Amino acid sequence: MKAKGGGMKVMAEAAVGKRFWHERVYPAWLPLVLAMGLVWRRRWWRFVVGGLNRPLIFLALFAWSFKGTAAASHLHFLVPGLAALAAVSGSYGDLVNWFTLRRKYFQVLDECLLAPVSTRSLLVGHLIGGGAKGLVVAALVYLSGWAVAGGLCFNPLFLLQLAVIAFTFAALAVAVAMVANGDKDVLIFTNLVVLPMTFFCGTFFPVEGLPGVLSKLAWFLPLTAGTYHLRALALGEPVHWGWLAQSIGWFCALYTLAYLLLCWRRQD
């Protein structure tokens, strides 16, 4: 019995050592990112068309409405907001459906939760996969807006702020999918919380124009500071570190929430 116990101990140590060696070669979240990338590579045109559809329709309608008028300069105000809107819809929409369908109907998420992959790696892999898609779609929307309106700046901090928005709402998607009982719950939360947020966080008009206390409450939403900072960077204004810090704070908060809910679901 002692020899058998010693053999199992050696096998366990070898398994841990093998996994440690693998994680030194490549991070444990990389296969998840590649798996999501393979799916999106086969259906890339659906994701691109679906992500660009609504922002480009808004851009075309506003461009035609403002053509030849003094309000044409308002396009410079709208384009960063449309990029933020595309980042939210591209990262949140698909990832929340990805998690919900695999957890409730296909039971694929249960296999992931039982796999010898840490919760942190599981979360990071899905956030990178979902957030990167939102970031690509938002960058395409911004480039389309730049081609129409012109006079917009593009710098590394703009890309960083856009990435923070995309990964923040990817974390929100994971958190929502962990507590939703099905696609109907996801649809209700999206229509009652996420969709109004995309319109009342300074994407189409300044939050200062909201009535009464709503103009103050809008600054406590996770998209407002990011949208304002995107617009400031696009117009060549100085960097607002406070807005960037607020956006990163929202990402950290929602990442922590998604991590705790994923741990809870794993122990369930």
Short description:
The chain is mainly α and 268 residues long.
Alpha carbon gyration radius: 21 Å
The level of helicity is over 70%
Give the class from helix and strand content and strand pairing.
mainly alpha
Regions with little confidence, pLDDT below 50 for 5+ residues: 1-5
Structural commentary:
The chain contains eleven helices and no strands. It is mostly helical and 268 residues long. α2 crosses α6 (119-149), α4 runs antiparallel to α6 (119-149) and α7 runs parallel beside α11 (241-267). The longest helix has 31 residues, at 74-104. The relative contact order is 0.12. Mean pLDDT is 82; it is low at 1-5.
What is this structure's SSE topology?
Blueprint lengths: L1 H24 L4 H13 L1 H23 L7 H31 L3 H7 L4 H31 L6 H24 L3 H17 L14 H4 L6 H11 L6 H27 L1
Which terms summarize this structure?
disordered N terminus; globular; 268 residues; 0% strand
